[in-house]
Amino acid sequence: MFHAIKEWFDPRRVEQVGETPDYRFSLANERTFLAWIRTALALLAGGLVVAQLLPPFAIPYLREAVAVGLMVLGGAGALRAVDRWVRSEMAIRLGRDLPPTRFPAILAVAVAIGSAVLIVAVLANGAGS
User: Fold this and answer.
1) Which among 75, 93, 79 is positioned nearest to 19, based on CA atoms?
2) Considering its fold, how many domains does the chain have in total?
3) Which domain holds residue 106?
4) What confidence score (pLDDT) does residue 30 get?
5) Which of 57, 64, 110, 117 is most buried (CB neighbours < 10 A)?
6) CA dihedral sign, ordered 33, 48, 51, 115
């Protein structure tokens, strides 16, 4: 595990693996990484907005739980982005298939569940007023 984390911070280690690919593949990998980072930042910002700007829900501590959940997903997304970037870059350099990942499915399910919880909370707030 710590070996993989070392690779996040030392691009020379990645460059020493395999052969230098067509730069377009590396740039596409980097754009994918940046898209994941934007998603992570959006989740973090969403968590902050929920925590600071939404009024409390009818269900105690639901607002805080949603905010923390969004921030945890954002942090996990950022870590997953860098790990995926390194693993994909190494696969490209070695001429292997890209590594499989379940993270997009996990993120989508978590967002869908969060959406359902928020819908219930909004309806509960509307019924209570």
Assistant:
1) 93
2) 1
3) 23-128
4) 95
5) 57
6) negative
Nearby residues of 19 by Cβ (< 8 Å), 6 or more positions away: 93, 95
Work out the number of other CB atoms within 10 angstroms of the CB of residue 7.
19
* Non-local CB neighbours of 121 within 8 Å, separated by 6+ positions: 57, 58, 59, 62, 63, 66
* CA 102 vs CA 10, 106, 108: distances in Å: 25, 6, 10
Decide if 16 is inside a domain.
no
pTM here is 0.81
Task: Answer whether residue 94 is part of any domain.
Answer: yes
- Average pLDDT of the chain to the nearest whole number: 89
Average pLDDT over residues 98-114: 91
> 54-87, pLDDT tens digit by residue?
888 888 898 999 999 999 999 999 999 999 999 9
Helix, strand, coil in percent for the chain, rounding step 5: 80, 0, 20
Q: How far apart are CA 67 and CA 15, in angstroms?
A: 39
